[in-house]
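Worked problem 6 (solution included).
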Amino acid sequence: MRRKIVCIILLIMTIVGANSQSKTYFVSSSGNDNNSGLSIKAAWRTISRVNQTIFQPGDVILFKSGDIWNGQLHPKGSGVAGKPIIINYYSNHYGDKTKPVINIGEAEGAAIQLVNQSWWAIRNIEVTSGASPKLGIGRQGIVVIAKGAEHHIEHIIISNCYIHDIWGQLGGDTPYTGYNSCGILVKIESDKTRKRTIASSINDVLVENNRIERFDKCGIIVSGRNNIIVRNNYIEDTGGDGIFVNGCYKGLIEHNVVKRSCLRSGDPNLIGGKTWWPHTAALWIADCDQTIMQFNEVYDTGRQPGNGDGEAYDFDFNCKNCILQYNYSNNNHGFLLIMYKTFKNIARYNISQNDQSHLIQMQCDTSEENQIYNNVFYVDYGTSDIDYFSGHDSVKSKLGASFKNNIFYATGQGRFRSVYTQGDVLVRQYNDSVVLPHPLRGTLFYHNCYFGP
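Solution. The predicted structure is:
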């Protein structure tokens, strides 16, 4: 009897184990939704069939290389630690790296969206639209959202995807427009019925090796807390910001290239709602602690009349103990913005070449102890301002950060100058009558090298 009971228990365990095994699903434009999807010959055909399935930890969803699907992918289910759910591609030909394509056409919203789902990896997918912009319609690439109260998303990977030719709406504040109109968006959705953000969280996010081209509004936005990494991405031709990381602790933004960002966000005739935000920058952080931006390259930002920024990099509100190092900036409308309410941030070992307008704009106070040291600033045309900017506030005599051991090299028709400015950014007034107090040791300019005017 005992042997019989043991055999029954082993049989039950075998059945349960078999049912819990991970599965690999195949999707092909020549498949059939009545198939099981569990082999290449039994592949599914449509995105709708994929959307109907609740996937289990360790499952893999493979789209056929080079095939095109028109629609929006919203798969269900979550993985668990060590067993993520993976979206990737397969090919019948060895070495074929052609990505499968999801085309949202004129639809509103995301090509791929996960809501309150953890442990997912999205790899090697091409996302596009090609449709002309349409008032009131926001469009997105790949979106991960923590929505509602107490949702904690863990472990999201988005890698080696190509997202291009998606024209959303630069203005507006709907779930799909403005800053939500983004190539890759990972965010905690705020609760508009409350005065504070919902106590949800997103941790362990890796966004790497993606290419985003011709997109309105933004390239990559990640709002998370711990282990946030954005690396090796290429972004070109965005109406607004290139990369924005918000709210993270010890985050890492590195080896990214951003070209021709901020091209359209400052159009004074932009339509789409009163809440549109025209001020954009190429690569920046806000509400971050001990976060590093390093080995990035930024080129040719745009700056229309409504855009007060246009810089390559930015320490924005509530950044503290963050570092900007080993970065390159060329032909942007400024190298660095340091906002007020920023504390003990450092910009070091960077190269700025021909950054115009406000080379460095400081809205910070010297008591906040931001530092700029061991950088090289080069200009051979135009005027690059070191700008102490107080906006419409009363005169602030303590504006600024400390400059130490930097090289300022002006040649040809280029020059540097320090200015104290007030008013709107693009029509600001230069006030040479403001007398700053005698600097304390460790503030303002010490031990820099200067060449040229």
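Discussion: Residues 109-117+139-451 form a domain with the Pectate Lyase C-like fold (CATH 2.160.20).
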